[in-house]
């Protein structure tokens, strides 16, 4: 029979934390997931905007509906929001306690926003002894033992021992925010399972360099609840939950979700990394460099001087003419009609739509595209593309032309979000450029280009796969240099 796991928690509409994360985690562990919503939040990856808790009587009604019908093998309790909700859960546990109870004492989100009424802290403290396992983060652990936040893992373990002994529950001390060093000096993210008898089991894991950490606490506690009925002990469940979470953290960036601290990829093991997800993660430093470079920052806020934008536009027009030839070459190499149509259409679109945009923008300033000299960076990028498309396979050529879709779509989307937040009265000098790349039709074309590259990778020989990886990374670097030449290199005489 499938293991049936219940989450009693808050809702995170952006899908990275709360019950949304819990249900994905339950599915990832092969269990049947259920969710009783204690509280609603309006939040995204950047922070919490509002919290609304329905009447506690409705929480009781939801819990009764489950208990009257379904045997629950394990429960994970997360954000409860209010003292009234905590009282309802306390009563429910007294009468319907499932075999395994994990309690994540959610008080404050990573963003610093409160997720528990201030007057509910003592009620939450009183609920703790009903759990088998508590999963406070460093800040919550400190509040629960009435101490300052620990500065290192040893300090956190000492607090964990105090909490375990006062509640009779096991405590998983999470060292994610503390960091620790392994024998070979590698940075680790070590957790520790502390028993009420003072026993300590270290659960080490590699540190993942990522900003996609929204909902890690929710996901870890859910994985523990889902795995415990399938494992011998909490220690065994913790080791497997930790390994799963490390993979989810590593896959988070490739999801491309949100502008703040993005979510982890709960389903990474069900859908193993493709060429595109792997490469998107691999070029994370290049993406970060593009997102924060002076040219893009000034383009985003509209402060980019026209002289720099004009230089960029002129080079881009040179680039697009040749890029369109490369896309036509990918179409010629395409193994099937869908790919051929897509790349041929993209070639025409590069000439018509994008170059049209450039012409309009220049004409509006009384300038034209004639007599422009191609810069060294533009030349180098085009030489690379022409080489991949002239001498490489379809797979290599499809990988080489992909960053120009994907990085523009990515930057366009980011700038489009900023643009939408701006008051409509503030005219942005480069609004037309942003709209072109933030357009959902361009996002759809990018998704198609990614799909074609992924399929080529699947069908490719080992040599072709290596060539795809090299071509994709090199094109991505050139994309960065291409933007950078607009402000960061000495002016090229035009
Ligand atoms: N960058 C990282 N690399 C590896 N593991 C991490 C990283 N950040 C957090 N973790 C792990 O994620 C789990 C959750 O730990 P964390 O301390 O972030 O909890 P939390 O603060 O409750 O999470 P949340 O961000 O959801 O509030 C722990 O197993 C921790 O070791
Ligand atoms: C509904 C809900 N529950 C829990 C958290 C804590 O997660 P995090 O600290 O990662 O934001 C959250 N943000 N939202």
UniProtKB/TrEMBL annotation:
<comment type="function">
    <text>Catalyzes the phosphorylation of hydroxymethylpyrimidine phosphate (HMP-P) to HMP-PP, and of HMP to HMP-P.</text>
</comment>
<feature type="domain" description="Thiaminase-2/PQQC">
    <location>
        <begin position="283"/>
        <end position="484"/>
    </location>
</feature>
<dbReference type="GO" id="GO:0008972">
    <property type="term" value="F:phosphomethylpyrimidine kinase activity"/>
</dbReference>
<feature type="domain" description="Pyridoxamine kinase/Phosphomethylpyrimidine kinase">
    <location>
        <begin position="12"/>
        <end position="265"/>
    </location>
</feature>
<keyword id="KW-0808">Transferase</keyword>
<dbReference type="GO" id="GO:0008902">
    <property type="term" value="F:hydroxymethylpyrimidine kinase activity"/>
</dbReference>
<keyword id="KW-0547">Nucleotide-binding</keyword>
<dbReference type="Pfam" id="PF03070">
    <property type="entry name" value="TENA_THI-4"/>
</dbReference>
<keyword id="KW-0418">Kinase</keyword>
<dbReference type="InterPro" id="IPR004305">
    <property type="entry name" value="Thiaminase-2/PQQC"/>
</dbReference>
<dbReference type="Pfam" id="PF08543">
    <property type="entry name" value="Phos_pyr_kin"/>
</dbReference>
<dbReference type="GO" id="GO:0005829">
    <property type="term" value="C:cytosol"/>
</dbReference>
<dbReference type="GO" id="GO:0009229">
    <property type="term" value="P:thiamine diphosphate biosynthetic process"/>
</dbReference>
<dbReference type="InterPro" id="IPR029056">
    <property type="entry name" value="Ribokinase-like"/>
</dbReference>
<dbReference type="GO" id="GO:0005524">
    <property type="term" value="F:ATP binding"/>
</dbReference>
<comment type="pathway">
    <text>Cofactor biosynthesis; thiamine diphosphate biosynthesis; 4-amino-2-methyl-5-diphosphomethylpyrimidine from 5-amino-1-(5-phospho-D-ribosyl)imidazole: step 3/3.</text>
</comment>
<keyword id="KW-0067">ATP-binding</keyword>
<keyword id="KW-0784">Thiamine biosynthesis</keyword>
<protein>
    <submittedName>
        <fullName>Phosphomethylpyrimidine kinase</fullName>
    </submittedName>
</protein>
<dbReference type="InterPro" id="IPR013749">
    <property type="entry name" value="PM/HMP-P_kinase-1"/>
</dbReference>
<dbReference type="InterPro" id="IPR016084">
    <property type="entry name" value="Haem_Oase-like_multi-hlx"/>
</dbReference>
<dbReference type="InterPro" id="IPR004399">
    <property type="entry name" value="HMP/HMP-P_kinase_dom"/>
</dbReference>
<dbReference type="GO" id="GO:0009228">
    <property type="term" value="P:thiamine biosynthetic process"/>
</dbReference>
């Amino acid at each position: 029979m499938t293991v049936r796991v219940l989450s009693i928690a808050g809702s995170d509409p952006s899908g990275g934390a709360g019950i949304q994360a819990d249900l994905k985690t339950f599915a990832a562990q092969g269990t049947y997931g259920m969710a009783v919503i204690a509280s609603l939040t309006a939040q995204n990856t950047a922070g919490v905007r509002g919290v609304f808790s329905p009447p506690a009587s409705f929480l009781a009604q939801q819990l009764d509906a489950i208990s009257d019908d379904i045997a629950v093998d394990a429960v994970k309790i997360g954000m409860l929001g209010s003292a009234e909700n905590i009282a309802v859960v306390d009563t429910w546990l007294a009468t319907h306690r499932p075999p395994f109870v994990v309690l994540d004492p959610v008080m404050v989100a990573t963003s610093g926003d409160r997720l528990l009424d201030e007057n509910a802290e003592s009620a939450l403290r009183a609920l703790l002894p009903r759990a088998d396992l508590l999963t406070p983060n460093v800040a919550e652990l400190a509040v629960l033992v009435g101490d300052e936040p620990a500065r290192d893992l040893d300090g956190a373990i000492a607090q964990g021992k105090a909490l375990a002994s006062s509640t009779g529950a096991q405590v998983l001390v999470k060292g994610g925010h503390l960091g620790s060093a392994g024998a070979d000096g590698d940075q680790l993210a070590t957790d520790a399972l502390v028993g009420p008898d003072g026993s300590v089991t270290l659960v080490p894991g590699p540190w993942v360099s990522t900003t996609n950490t929204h909902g890690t606490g929710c996901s870890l506690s859910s994985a523990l609840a889902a795995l415990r009925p399938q494992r011998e002990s909490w220690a065994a469940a913790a080791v497997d939950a930790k390994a799963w979470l490390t993979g989810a953290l590593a896959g988070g960036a490739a999801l491309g979700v949100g502008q703040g601290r993005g979510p982890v990829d709960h389903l990474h093991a069900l859908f193993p990394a493709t060429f595109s997800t792997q490469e998107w993660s691999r070029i994370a430093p290049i993406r970060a460099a593009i997102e924060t470079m002076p040219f893009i920052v000034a383009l985003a806020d509209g402060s980019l001087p026209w002289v720099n934008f004009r230089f960029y536009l002129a080079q881009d027009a040179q680039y697009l003419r040749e890029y369109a030839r490369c896309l036509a070459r990918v179409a010629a190499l395409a193994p099937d009609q869908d790919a051929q149509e897509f790349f041929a259409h993209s070639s025409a679109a590069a000439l018509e739509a994008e170059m049209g945009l450039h012409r309009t923008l220049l004409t509006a300033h009384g300038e034209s595209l004639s007599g422009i000299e191609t810069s060294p960076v533009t030349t180098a990028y085009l030489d690379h593309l022409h080489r991949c498309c002239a001498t490489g396979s379809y797979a290599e050529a499809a990988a080489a032309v992909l960053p120009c879709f994907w990085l523009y779509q990515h930057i366009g989307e980011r700038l489009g979000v900023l643009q939408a937040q701006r008051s409509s009265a503030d005219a942005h000098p480069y609004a037309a450029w942003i709209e072109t790349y933030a357009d959902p039709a361009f996002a759809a074309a990018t998704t198609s280009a990614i799909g074609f590259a992924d399929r080529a990778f699947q069908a490719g020989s080992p040599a072709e796969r290596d060539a795809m990886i090299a071509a994709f990374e090199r094109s991505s670097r050139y994309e960065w240099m291409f933007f950078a030449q607009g402000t960061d290199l000495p002016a090229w005489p035009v």
